[in-house]
Write a sequence for this structure.
């Protein structure tokens, strides 16, 4: 059996990331390194390393006073994010079409949608968001491009944050649109599937939680 050694930085990273995505840390809230070193009983080095990694995922920002804060979201950067996500999804879908991966994509979408349905009535917001976004991620996985998957997963972290904090969400409409995307692709209508994907993300995060 292989025992994985988890560094102090990785442990701190996972704790802070979970706190951000769960809403324990509010948008724009300052991160007090001194308090974290006291809480975790570590030096500030792993704290700063973890925060730097979270900064690369856009969950943390460093302001002019060199203090760390949870990222603040506005409509402009949410719009920009959704545009980039859509570009990745459409690109991955094109790869699937060009390389005869639609059967694989359909299998992944059906599995993801089934899990989303199971969590529809019972899951807390963050758990349902993750299940919902797994549907979109199926397009990326089916394309079988590790570099595309890696860049997409970085975006999904900040998208999860955006959606989790959204207060005008609509689970019913979100799952209905996923159902329509799946049914349209099952019917073989590639053009309409692309249009539905565009429509889904053009409405941004108000559709998701």
């Amino acid at each position: 059996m292989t025992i994985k050694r988890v560094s102090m930085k990785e442990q701190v990273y996972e704790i802070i990331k979970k706190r951000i995505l769960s809403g324990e840390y509010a948008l724009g809230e300052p991160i007090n390194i001194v308090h974290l070193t006291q809480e975790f009983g570590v030096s500030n080095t792993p704290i700063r390393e973890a925060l730097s990694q979270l900064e690369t995922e856009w969950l943390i920002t460093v302001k002019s006073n060199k203090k760390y804060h949870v990222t603040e979201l506005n409509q402009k950067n949410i719009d920009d994010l959704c545009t980039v996500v859509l570009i990745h999804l459409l690109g991955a879908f094109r790869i699937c079409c060009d390389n005869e991966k639609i059967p694989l994509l359909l299998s992944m979408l059906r599995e993801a949608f089934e899990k989303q349905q199971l969590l529809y009535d019972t899951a807390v917001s963050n758990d349902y968001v993750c299940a919902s976004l797994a549907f979109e991620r199926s397009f990326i996985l089916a394309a079988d491009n590790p570099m595309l998957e890696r860049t997409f997963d970085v975006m999904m972290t900040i998208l999860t944050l955006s959606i989790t904090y959204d207060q005008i969400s609509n689970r019913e409409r979100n799952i209905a649109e996923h159902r329509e995307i799946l049914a349209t692709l099952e019917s073989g209508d590639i053009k309409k599937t692309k249009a539905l994907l565009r429509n889904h993300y053009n409405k941004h995060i108000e559709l998701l939680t």
User: Anything to note?
Assistant: The beta strands are 60-62, 68-70.
